[in-house]
Amino acid sequence: MQFLDDSLHPENMDKVVITVAPYGPEWMPEDFPEDIPVTMEAQIQKAVDCYEAGASVLHLHVREPDGKGSKRLSMFNELIAGVRKAVPDMIIQVGGSISFAPEDDGQAAKWLSDDTRHALAELDPKPDQVTVALNTIQMNIMELIYPEFYEGTSLANPATYDAYREMIVPAGPTWAEEHLRRLQNAGIQPHFQLVGMHALETLDRMVRKGVYKGPLNLTCIGIGGGHHGPHPYNLFDFIQRAPDGCTVTAESLFKNVLPWNTMALAMGMHVRCGIEDTLIDQHGKRFTSVQQVQQLVRIAKELGREIADGKEAREIYRIGTWYDDVDETLAGNGMTPNRKPGVKNVPLRRVA
Fold first, then answer.
1. pLDDT tens figures, 86-139
2. CATH for the 12-331 domain, from 3.40.50.300, 3.20.20.70, 3.40.50.2000, 3.90.650.10
3. Which portions of the sequence form the region Disordered (predicted)?
């Protein structure tokens, strides 16, 4: 991304798109009963509460009536329909992992089969986005969740701890290409969850080969355990290397969430919060998803940045926009064109 002398002035930045992840599939309801909705009505109301607080994107997972993370697409359909009716402008972003929470003690926290994950393209009503990871990689969320953070929660169970410590994100090239094909055919926008520079480079190659032809909405994940850690230079490097025409959202874990998001806000980027990312504030106290959204709204306003509502977030994310070919996709995302035969040196962007 390009930064001019006035790029840090809020009047030259997009409005802030706040993504909230209020369902936290890694937790059980007893871990935070005040803020983990279980009934379908409560899950829908949680979306409403977060939207009214200032979140325009809902990162969606679903719970069964017993409180466990649901893997049934029918439950996702029901929640999507309920949220769409209650807050029609809110962007619905289904977590591409579906629900990686283990069903029983000792069961691995495995992502579901390729066929089941592909079926997210068949959700009805369809979501606006599905999150997509690239490159199979370790996702040891326990590396940066310190014992004092999860003491007294279900993650303190040794079997559950080990399941999340050993979790793998399956996202090889065959799966990724097929998944993107199905999402595009269904008119569902992928939101790319990128775990490091190698994933950003893989996405760049996929765009240049025509595998994906749409806007680039990216999340830079700083959670360690096989992903970027929350080192500031990881975020700075990612933003510097990201295409000029994309969006970048920051995501981290626990006490790293607030500083990671604050840096993103100051640089004109977007933010994510919610109990899927942290149960606590900077002082170690329980912190609801709504409170987290409200905090980000306050910080954004102190920086002079306005908050995007649902309709504005759709424009910023270019929901519903698709491109006809590789050249149009590259131009639409502010990327240099592919090298043409005979062209030497660094390719130049198209000049009007």
1. 999 999 999 987 654 545 555 545 555 677 788 899 999 999 999 999 999 999
2. 3.20.20.70
3. 333-352
| Cα distances (angstroms) measured from residue 19 to each of 22, 92, 162, 311, 346 | 10, 10, 29, 14, 36
What pTM did the predictor assign?
Answer: 0.94
Least Cα distance to 294 among 6, 22, 72, 18 occurs for 18
Residue closest to 16 by CA, chosen among 320, 333, 293: 293
Could you tell me the residue ranges of all domains in the chain? 12-331
Rg, C-alpha atoms of the chain:
19
Q: How far apart are CA 67 and CA 43, in angstroms?
A: 11
Q: Which of 331, 340, 347 is nearest to 244 (CA)?
A: 331
Matching residue, tokens 């709204």: 297
Counting runs of H as helices and runs of E as strands, what totals does the chain give?
12, 10
